[in-house]
Amino acid sequence: MKSENRKILTRSAVRRQREREERYQTILRAAESLFAKEGYHQTSINQIADLAEVSVGTVYFYFKNKEDLLIQLFEEISYLFRSMIGGEFKKREASLEGIMRAGHLFFDKFCSLYPDKLAILYRETVGQSPALAEHRQRFQKKIIGDLQGALQRASENMGFSFPSPDSVEVIAVSIIGIYDCIVSHFLLSNDRTQDLKVIGDDAVSFLMGGIRSMCQ
Amino acid sequence: MKSENRKILTRSAVRRQREREERYQTILRAAESLFAKEGYHQTSINQIADLAEVSVGTVYFYFKNKEDLLIQLFEEISYLFRSMIGGEFKKREASLEGIMRAGHLFFDKFCSLYPDKLAILYRETVGQSPALAEHRQRFQKKIIGDLQGALQRASENMGFSFPSPDSVEVIAVSIIGIYDCIVSHFLLSNDRTQDLKVIGDDAVSFLMGGIRSMCQ
Amino acid sequence: MKSENRKILTRSAVRRQREREERYQTILRAAESLFAKEGYHQTSINQIADLAEVSVGTVYFYFKNKEDLLIQLFEEISYLFRSMIGGEFKKREASLEGIMRAGHLFFDKFCSLYPDKLAILYRETVGQSPALAEHRQRFQKKIIGDLQGALQRASENMGFSFPSPDSVEVIAVSIIGIYDCIVSHFLLSNDRTQDLKVIGDDAVSFLMGGIRSMCQ
Amino acid sequence: MKSENRKILTRSAVRRQREREERYQTILRAAESLFAKEGYHQTSINQIADLAEVSVGTVYFYFKNKEDLLIQLFEEISYLFRSMIGGEFKKREASLEGIMRAGHLFFDKFCSLYPDKLAILYRETVGQSPALAEHRQRFQKKIIGDLQGALQRASENMGFSFPSPDSVEVIAVSIIGIYDCIVSHFLLSNDRTQDLKVIGDDAVSFLMGGIRSMCQ
DNA sequence: TATGAATGAGAGTTCATTCAT
DNA sequence: CATGAATGAACTCTCATTCAT
Question: CA–CA separation, A30 vs D205, rounded Å?
Fold first, then answer.
C-alpha cells in the first residue's frame, strides 16, 4: 500500500509539474502574441494575464517582471534560431554550400513557421532596456561567431583565404544584416510572405556572390 | 514714422523668427542627445526641457507631443541621410561606381559625423509607435527605391541586366541591411569607430561582389 | 488487540502532538528572527515559510494570519519577561532591594539572552496594528501595575510613603521608560552589549535614586 | 513702465512662492494627521491627497515618496523639539534648574500643543524603514548629546561630579526614556491630558532625584 | 510666448490569504 | 495535515499633457 501511495504521489507530482510547464507556456505565448501585435510598451501585464486566462499574480509567479517576460521570450527564440540555422555553421566539414543551406533554412523554414517570433526578434527587442540589450548582443556575437567560424573553416577546407580576420567578421555581420533587413522589409513592413521563396533565393545568391568576391 | 515703425517691427519680427528657430533647434538637440544616450522611453519631457534650459510648456509649444519630437528628429535625420548619400543614387548617369561611392560616403562621413543620429535611426526609432513606423517605412521605401533606380539605370547604362525587378529590390534591401547591421554591430554595440575605414571598405567590397554576381 | 491498537494510536498521537508543537516553534522562531532583522512589514509570509522549511499553507495552519504571528510572538516574549522579572514585583515581602534585583535581572539576563526578542518588544511591536496595540497596552499596564504594587508594598513594609497613588504610577512608568530607552539606545541603535553590565548598574542606581527621592 | 512690469513680475513670483509653501504645508499637515490617527502603513498616498485636496501627482511633486513624507515630518518635529526644549541644554551657565525647566517645558508646552506630533515622534517613526531609523538615531544622539553636555557643565558649574562619562550618557538616556514612556502611557495609550501638569511634575521630581543621587 | 505647478489615468508590482489536491 | 500555485485588491509611483498666470 505504501508503494502504491508513493506511486500516486509521484503521479500527481508529475501532473503538477506538467501543468506548471503548460501554464508557463500559455503565459509566454500570450506575451509573444501581444508583443508582436501591439508592441512591448503598448502591452500591459493585465492584457497578457487576460489573454492567458490567468490572474496578474500568476504572471508574476512565473516571471520576475515584465522585462523578464521579454527576455525569456528572446532566449527561447534565439535558442530556436541557433537550433535550426546554427547547426550548419558548426559542422567540422564546413563549406560554402553549408552557408547557403543555412540561408535557405532561415528564409524557407524559420520565417514561414514563426512570424510572431520574427517581430519579437527584429523589432520588439531592439532598444528596449539595457538588460535585454545585453542578451541581444550576446546572441548576435554568438551567431556572428558561428558564421565567422564556418567561413574560416570553409576557406581552409576549400583552399582559399580571406583578406584578413576582420574581413571575415565584416562578411558575417553583413550576412546577418541581409537576413534582418529582408525580414523587416518583406515580412514586417510589407507582407510578401507568398514571394518568400524567390526573395530568399535572390538574397542567398547575393550574399554568396559577396562571399565569393572576397575569396582569394 | 510709419515706415520706420514698420522697419523696427520687421527687424524685431526677424529676430523673433530667428530666436524661434534657435529654440526649436535647442530642444531638438536636447531630445536627440537624451534619446540616443538614455533611450526614447527612458527619457522624460522634463529631462529634455531641463537639458534645453526651457520649460515643459515651451517644449509643447514647439512640438505636438513626445512622439512628434521623435518623428521630427527622424525626419531631420532621414533628410540628412538622403542629402548626403541619396545624391549618388539619383544621378542620371548611374553606375556601379556611384553605388560604391555612396557606401563610402555613408561609412566615412555620415557614421563618423553623427553617432547620436545613428543611434536614433537604427535603435530608438524601431518598434516604438505606429505613427513612427509609418515614417520609417516611407523612408525605407524611398531609399530602397532610390537604390533600386540607381541599380536599374546602372544596368542599362553599362549593358547588363538583373534576373528580375524583384531581384533588384532584394539587392537594394540587402545593401541597406548591410549598412544597418554594420552600424549596429561595430558602432552601437561595440565601439570600433577607429576601424571604421577598413570595415567600411570590406563591407563595400562585399556588397559590390554581391551585386556583380547577380548581373547577367 | 483493541488496547494494543489504542496504545499504538496513543503513541502516534503523542508523537504527532510533539511534532505539532515543534512545527509551531520552528515557524515562530523563523518569524522572530526575520521580524527582528528585516522588520515586520519588510518580512513576507513566504520568507518565513522558507526559513522554517515549511509551506505557506502550513504557516496558516498554525497561525490565523500574519498579525497573529506577531501577536503570538509578543505574548510569548511578554510572558517570558514577566516570568523572569515580574517575580520580584509580586512578592509579598516587597522591598526596594527587590526592585533593584529586578533591574539587574533585566539588564544582565534578559537583555543578553534574547537580543532578537528585545527588537520585537521595543521596535517591531510599536505602532503596527490596533489589535497588537491592545496587547501591548495590556502588557504595559500589567507590568506597570506589578511595579506599582511592589512600590506600594515596599513603602508599607519599609515605613515610608509616596506623595500620591498617581506618583507611584508615574514612578513605575518612568522606570519602564528607562528600561526601554536603554535598550533602544545601547542595544538596538548602537551595539554596546559588552558594556551592558556597567550601563545596567548605572541605570539601576539612577532609578533607585529617583525612587528614594520621592519617598517621604 | 519697465520697472512697474518688473514689480508685477516680482509680485506674482512672490505669490507663487507663497502658494508653493502653503501647498507643501497643507500636504504635510494632512500626512501628519493621518499618520497620527491611522498609522503610517495604514495610510495611503491617495488618502493624503484627498485630505489635502490635491491630486496624487501633486503629492509627488512636493515629496520624493511616501517615506520622504514621514522623514520631512520627523525632521520638522525634531527641529521643533530642539527649538523648544534644547535651548535649556545648550546654555553656558548650565544648572540642574535648567534641566528641570526643560522637563517642564516638554510636558507643559510641547505635549499639550502637539498631540499629533507626539504620536509621530514616539510611535509612527519607530521601526518603519532604515532611512528613517538613521534620522531617528541622529536626532536621539543629538538630544542625548545636548543633555549630556548640560549635565557635564552643570556639574562643573555647581562643583560636583559624576562617576564616569559613561554614567552621564546613561543618565541622559534614562531621562529621555522617562519622557518617551510618560508620553506613550499617559497620552498615547490612555488619554490623561488633563492630569498632565501633575504627572509632569512627578516625572521631573523623579528624574531630578535620580540625577542628584548620582552626584558625588 | 513662456512658465511650471497641477493633473490623474494608468502602469508595474507585491503579498496576505485561500483552497484543491 | 501539508502543499504551493493561484488570486486580485491595493499600493506606490510615473509622466505626458494641460492651462492659468
Answer: 73
